[in-house]
Design brief:
- The chain is of the alpha/beta class.
- The chain has three domains: 287 residues, 2-enoyl-CoA Hydratase, Chain A, domain 1 (Alpha-Beta Complex); 178 residues, NAD(P)-binding Rossmann-like Domain (Rossmann fold), CATH 3.40.50.720; 108 residues, N-(1-d-carboxylethyl)-l-norvaline Dehydrogenase, domain 2, CATH 1.10.1040.50.
- 46% of the residues lie in helices and 14% in strands.
- The chain has 25 helices and 20 strands.
- The strands form four sheets. The chain has an eight-stranded mixed beta sheet with strand order 13-12-11-14-15-16-17-18, sandwiched between helices. A seven-stranded mixed beta sheet has the order 1-2-3-4-5-7-10, with helices on both faces.
- Helix 2 packs antiparallel against helix 11 and helix 13 packs across helix 14.
- The longest helix has 20 residues.
- The N and C termini lie far apart (87 Å).
């Protein structure tokens, strides 16, 4: 076989083969992952001219020169140069024009996907006539633009609904969620899922086929009635808007635009939809919501490069101990075994505690099996990483031990002494304390340099933030290794000072105290919580206190008062709440009622008489 390689100094290389197939490879110089940029327009247009002018080319396989990804999306940094909505609209229209041309080429185009194909990367693949992806765990497809306050601007709002159905496409775009290879095949996003070793071979076979005539994607009578009839479509879009507003409270404009643009394309045709898409993209780029979400994205991306201490290489954590089998301990064990992929040894004083911690992982994994996100064999493999003990057997080779016991200083100091006695000299002791200064926990430690704070937030499997709290004697090596460990657990770690309240509780306490003062002033609890949710918080302050634990939430107050004075003093009414045995969700007794058909949804009216 002879190859005719078209030289290029840019991001694309065209290799012509004598079997009628051309391989179009994207490999952006100097970047670990491919991203689409506006300046690629002329280069790709030139490649398409070459393909169009060569009658020997029957099919084209579009692939990535990166070993770990297809196309991660558009380079959103280019949006900073937009001075008006018209500038951003022009960027979207430019991408649409290129992808429209690919869709209408004489040759059959096949996207060979390995690794992430997200945002503009999936839109590029959708413009191709076939899509083949690998069965690798890293392969995923999605349109996450809504998470940046945007919408897919290069045809995604029009092509995905036509490919997989309006409702499923809306769900993906409105949540920004991605799907793995198997699910992508089930939805109809990709045409085949194959091992990486035969990806190009299978893609070439598809490239020699005729362009497909896609059947209507709707499945089931109800879906057909909703998506293929005028009244059905009206009802479907109306319900979508209602459900979206219930979640966003109108604080995010992008979801509404996504629904509008899809509806325009469905009712008025794809060209009208593309025009509406580009214009909506332009408007959204200029919104303050999108600007701030993009800033958060850039900041989060930069944080991934941080390891807490410059120039210190982290040690790998090969075995982890977790002290305490409560909700926090169970959550920590779950993210360690499933995300970090590291064996976890759970210690509790009661066998029931160990069982509860393991049940935490089992329940989450079992749901994933039922939804077919993972196989039962994968669940068993991950559960096998969890073991339990009532003593310290199996702790001698632990690299890090995360303590998640009660907020009691004497108990935590005893845990430090126990770990120093039963583990290696290099073992890191990480306390999940939410209130006690690490300096106090480490006061009697033989190896204080190995002790650090690692504060998670509940529920651990969902909350991304983790505070890494270094005291004066914590070694740089321990800081670096703990930060890296938290990243492996899927967390966004921030290194904070060992001060009262650390970072989160320091800023949260005044917020919670003010909510309590409003309750005592006669403001209904549901009014307070609903107002803050409407403002943009995921939950209200009173509901949050129930979730965290009223006892836990109030234990931080004495430390804050000692450090910052009386302005941090909590309303005395909290003492009555605690005296009544109300700890919140964990003991099904708090500000909210956990009985009846709507547990945790309605205020326990008896709280008002208790507070007087």
């Amino acid at each position: 076989m002879t190859n005719d390689v078209q030289p290029t100094s840019g991001a694309f290389t065209l290799t012509k083969q004598d079997n009628g197939i051309a391989i179009l490879t994207m490999d952006v110089p100097g970047e670990s992952m491919n991203t689409l940029k506006a300046e690629f327009g002329d280069e790709i247009s030139s490649m398409l001219d070459d393909i169009d002018g060569d009658s020997s080319i029957k099919g084209v396989v579009l692939t990535s020169g990166k070993s770990n990804s297809f196309v991660a999306g558009a380079d959103i940094s280019m949006l900073a140069a937009c001075e008006s909505a018209e500038d951003a609209t022009a960027i979207a229209a430019g991408g649409q024009a290129i992808f429209d041309r690919i869709e209408n080429m004489k040759a059959t185009f096949v996207a060979a996907i390995h690794g992430p194909a997200l945002g503009g990367g999936l839109e590029l693949a959708l413009a191709c006539h076939y899509r083949i992806c690998t069965d690798a765990a890293s392969t995923q497809v999605g349109l996450p633009e809504v998470q940046l306050g945007l919408l897919p601007g290069s045809g995604g709002t029009q092509r995905l609904p036509r490919l997989i159905g309006i409702q499923q496409a809306m769900k993906m775009m409105l949540t920004g969620s991605s799907v793995r290879a198997k699910q992508a095949k089930k939805y109809g996003i990709v045409d085949d899922v194959v091992p990486y070793s035969v990806l190009l071979e299978v893609a070439e076979q598809f490239a020699l086929k005729r362009k497909p005539e896609r059947e209507a994607p709707q499945k089931g009578l109800m879906n057909k009635m909703l998506e293929n009839t005028g009244p059905g479509k009206s009802m479907m879009f109306k319900k979508a808007r209602e459900a979206t507003f219930a979640k966003t409270k109108g604080n995010y404009p992008a979801p509404g635009y996504i629904i509008d643009v899809i509806e325009t394309g469905v009712n008025d045709g794809i060209q009208a939809g593309l025009k509406a898409e580009a214009e909506a993209f332009g408007k959204l780029v200029m919104t303050p919501e999108s600007f701030q979400l993009r800033q958060i994205f850039f900041a989060t991306t930069e944080m991934k490069k941080e390891n807490g201490v410059e120039g210190v290489k982290p040690e790998k954590m090969n075995k982890v101990g977790v002290l305490g089998g409560g909700l926090m301990g169970g959550g920590i064990a779950y993210v360690t075994s499933t995300k970090a992929g590291v064996p976890v040894r759970i210690k509790d004083v009661r066998a029931e505690g160990i069982a509860n911690a393991m049940k935490y992982s089992y329940d989450i994994l079992n749901k994933k099996v039922k939804k077919r996100f993972i196989r039962n064999s994968e669940m068993q493999k991950q559960m096998a990483l969890l073991t339990g003990t009532l003593d310290y057997s199996g702790y001698q080779d632990a690299d890090i031990v995360v303590e998640a016991v009660f907020e009691d200083l004497d108990l935590k100091q005893k845990m430090v002494a126990d770990i120093e006695a039963h583990c290696q000299e290099s073992t890191i002791f990480a306390s999940n304390t939410s209130s006690i200064p690490i300096t106090q926990i480490v006061a009697e430690a033989a190896r204080p340099e190995n002790v650090i704070g690692l504060h998670y937030f509940s529920p651990v499997d969902k909350m991304p933030l983790a505070e890494v709290i270094a005291h004066e004697k914590t070694s740089d090596q321990v800081i670096s290794s703990t930060v890296e460990f938290a990243k492996k657990q899927g967390k966004t770690p921030v290194v904070v000072k060992d001060g009262a309240g650390f970072y989160v509780n320091r800023i949260l306490a005044p917020y919670m105290n003010e909510a309590a003062s409003l309750i005592l002033a006669g403001e209904p609890i549901e009014h307070i919580d609903k107002s803050l949710v409407k403002f943009g918080f995921p939950v209200g302050p009173v509901k949050l206190l129930d979730e965290v634990g009223i006892d836990v939430g109030t234990k931080i107050i004495p430390f804050l008062v000692e450090a910052f004075g009386d302005r941090f003093t909590a309303p005395s009414a909290f003492d009555k709440v605690l005296a009544d045995g109300r700890k919140g969700k964990k003991n099904k007794k708090g500000f909210y009622s956990y009985e009846g058909k709507k547990p945790g949804k309605e205020v326990d009216e008896s709280i008002y008489s208790l507070l007087g």
